[in-house]
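Re: weekly structure request thread

Next one in the queue (435 aa):
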Amino acid sequence: MAVNVETLDKLERKITLELPLEAIQKEVDARLKRLQRQVRMDGFRPGKVPLSVVAQRYGASVHYEVVSDQVGQAFADAVAEAQLRVAGQPRITEKEPATQGMLAFEAVFEVYPEVKLGDLSALELEKVEAAVDEAAVERTLEILRKQRRTFTPRAEGEPAQDGDRVTIDFEGKIDGEPFAGGKASDFRFVLGEGQMLAEFENAVRGMKVGESKTFPLAFPQDYPGREVAGKTADFLVTVKKIEQQHLPEVNEAFVKSLGIEAGTEEALREDIRRNLERELKFRLQARNKVTALEALAQAAELDLPKAAVEAEIDRLIESARQDLKQRGIQNAEQAPMPREVFQEQAERRVRLGLVVAELIKTHDLRATEEQVDAHIRELAASYEQPEEVVRWYKSSPERLGEIRAIVLENNVADFIFSKAKVTSKALTFAELMGA
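Done, posted below.
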């Protein structure tokens, strides 16, 4: 039977569905009879409740279930026959039937758009390149040493300097009034490592044990604590202890403590370099992938289905609430989440998803099992027991699916770069990782 599809808007369609009342009642009767064999009621033995009693109690809900099921099936059959790709859930409402003995419904829904891909050869893309230099290896080695450093008290009367661990009491006030988080006792931090605001560290630097100081501190406008952002506080600080740091020597014991059996500095530096090169590769892929996919999306022509955008907004809001929960924010479920805040991001995601899907279909791009396996092994290589990590990924269809999606996106980006006009931009390791 031909399906009459009415176009309401660019992507909005309407279909009228009709269901025979006789078929609906037949299915209702069949379900009530099955229910009769299972239902339990006071005064009746199991399976012996009269059908009329079952119908009186459950008839309305069973009728609703049958109509819902049959309307859903009729809608699925209709869009399949009309070869429509439905975006989001349809809005189905009952209407007056055109034929006696029928129930009629209108289904209003959106379809996925036709996507016109842009000319990839006309795209002008900048591809970032970088390499692991000796400075990056040296910085990483220093980080490893700092992770295993020790501290001993400074000699009496020696002032605090960068690298020292200081223990202090402090109290801050704004306009003479204390504020949340502005007071602490026996607070410990390492000078010169950016753990505190620069003005705070500058005030403590050079102080001695037992010394107190009052100084002003201007909180930045973008400071995470909203109640103090952009305001100036007066802090009273008292130094209680100053300890100087001692970095371990890069010797055989130190190297072996990091899992490098050779025990040499050369072997340690080579291991650091390999890990940094893996990290660099992933960072380059991620950054260049964003460049390629954004250019692809901007060059394409399509209309966005509103239902898909609304569904994406729902996902973004749920993700934001989960993030608040993980941060320990109370009443995260009730936190205000204006939908318009997520509108632009949702539209960008939907657009990109539709365009990438079209490119994959048009050029038959795919992630091979060899590529997926290689990516997993590359991720696992930085762990102490890589084979266990490989098994962990491969034991879960969900985790495997995530890896397959990443590999496919990488293939898409490589394909775009292979067709576009590309210029290279060299960055240092520090510039790339800092970005």
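The domain at 150-246 is CATH 3.10.50.40 (Chitinase A; domain 3). The chain has three domains: 5-111, 120-130+277-434, 150-246.
Next request, please.
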